[in-house]
């Protein structure tokens, strides 16, 4: 079973406290969404968990791994920054990932590219921004790591393609027993995708549930409503 544990986790940049004393366990074969206003520390949290930034205080354990290197082996991370070499073709990037990542699911990449109609002989720089984001997401999904951490995977992607993507994301956890944690501003789009919800505000966890369905059934609340209440 996949598990991310944060204990007394804090991160400051200079004298700015970005995250303060987070204690949280995310576990299971679930999709968790993180939402929060701009600059509230969502990307910072994802980078800390992924071993790409160091905590100022506290600890992070991912599937029993406490070191940054150990955690990185459990996680496929999609940054909100562009990282692909624009002059290479999609095909080259696929081969490169296949060489670098043990168990990389090349067949699934081709299947997904066919669904979203991206030709592999195209250069990365000639894709639109939305298509580049999609291609990055496809490469990340094909990484067999048990935990996927995605920073704004839906940004810049058309509404009709978003639906395909949301299907893809659910099938990736359901079939493969993975945990997905992703940051987003697209509250409406993720309403029926996520199982758990984390809202960050004022450097702290302002709201957390691992069972959003219960909130929906018992209290009839949408994510947008929960978010508004938390931010009042
Ligand atoms: N490397 C860094 N050095 C200094 N400050 C940083 C650094 N990275 C992030 N910050 C600051 O930390 C705060 C949180 O940034 P972060 O990118 O985590 O927020 P976010 O919630 O992901 O924002 P957005 O929704 O706009 O993407 C911001 O004030 C940001 O300026």
TrEMBL record:
CDD domains: ABC_DR_subfamily_A. Keywords: ATP-binding, Nucleotide-binding. One of its GO terms (molecular function) is ATP binding. Signal peptide: none annotated. It comes from the Bacteria. Pfam families: ABC_tran. InterPro entries: AAA+_ATPase (IPR003593), ABC_transporter-like_ATP-bd (IPR003439), P-loop_NTPase (IPR027417). This is ABC-2 type transport system ATP-binding protein. It comes from Alkalicoccobacillus murimartini.
């Amino acid at each position: 079973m996949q598990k991310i544990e944060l204990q007394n986790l804090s991160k400051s940049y200079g004298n700015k406290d970005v995250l303060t004393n987070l204690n949280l366990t995310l576990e299971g074969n679930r999709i968790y969404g993180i939402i929060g206003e701009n600059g509230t520390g969502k990307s910072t949290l994802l980078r800390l968990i992924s071993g790409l930034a160091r905590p100022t205080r506290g600890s992070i354990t991912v599937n029993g791994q406490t070191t940054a290197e150990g955690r990185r082996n459990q996680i496929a991370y999609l940054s909100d920054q562009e990282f692909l070499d624009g002059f290479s073709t999609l095909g080259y990037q696929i081969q490169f990932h296949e060489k670098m990542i043990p168990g990389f699911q090349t067949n699934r990449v081709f299947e997904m590219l066919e669904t979203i109609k991206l030709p592999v002989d195209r250069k990365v720089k000639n894709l639109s921004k939305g298509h580049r984001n999609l291609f990055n997401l496809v490469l990340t999904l094909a990484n067999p790591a048990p935990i996927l951490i995605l920073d704004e995977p839906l940004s810049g992607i058309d509404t009709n393609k978003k639906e395909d993507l949301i299907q893809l994301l659910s099938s990736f956890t359901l079939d493969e027993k993975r945990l997905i944690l992703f940051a987003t501003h697209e509250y409406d789009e993720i309403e029926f995708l996520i199982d758990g919800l984390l809202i960050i505000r004022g450097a702290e966890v302002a709201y957390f549930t691992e069972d959003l369905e219960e909130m929906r059934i018992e209290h009839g609340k949408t994510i947008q409503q929960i978010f508004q209440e938390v931010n009042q």
